[in-house]
């Protein structure tokens, strides 16, 4: 995994996320807005978000094993997790990045999605290329 000095606890215990997008397409813009909203509303500001354009930083995307956009990577706390495809479903993103046990117990997050939806989370979905 690449990244500047990633520690197991992150910066002061914060959740570190890296969002890979493909240029300034409408899908990229929607993904950025969805993840920022998730960070503000569901993660209580305990989130550090870095947005990376795979066209401008292809080496970083390759180092993180990203082959499709949008892809959201949880850098810390370790172990790293990733989810690709549609990032508008907050429950799907929280489940896919396994963020349930990181101080989110008191947040108003709807119940987990059905088994079919959860399988899609780990499959990656179709991304821009």
Q: What report would you give on this structure?
A:
The protein is globular. It is built from four helices and four strands. With 129 residues, it is of the alpha+beta class. Residues 1-11 and 103-129 have low confidence and may be disordered. Helix content is 29%, strand content 19%. Strand 3 (71-76) and strand 4 form a beta hairpin.
Q: SSE layout and pairings?
A:
Blueprint (H helix, E strand, L loop, with lengths): L14 E7 L4 H16 L5 E7 L4 H6 L7 E6 L4 E4 L5 H7 L18 H9 L6
Parallel strand pairs: 1-2
Antiparallel strand pairs: 1-3, 3-4
Helix pairs in contact: 3-4
List keywords for this structure.
globular; 4 helices; 4-stranded mixed sheet; alpha+beta; 19% strand; disordered N terminus; disordered C terminus; 129 residues; single chain
Gist of the model:
With 129 residues, the protein is of the alpha+beta class. The protein has four helices and four strands. Strand 1 (15-21), helix 1 and strand 2 (47-53) form a beta-alpha-beta unit.
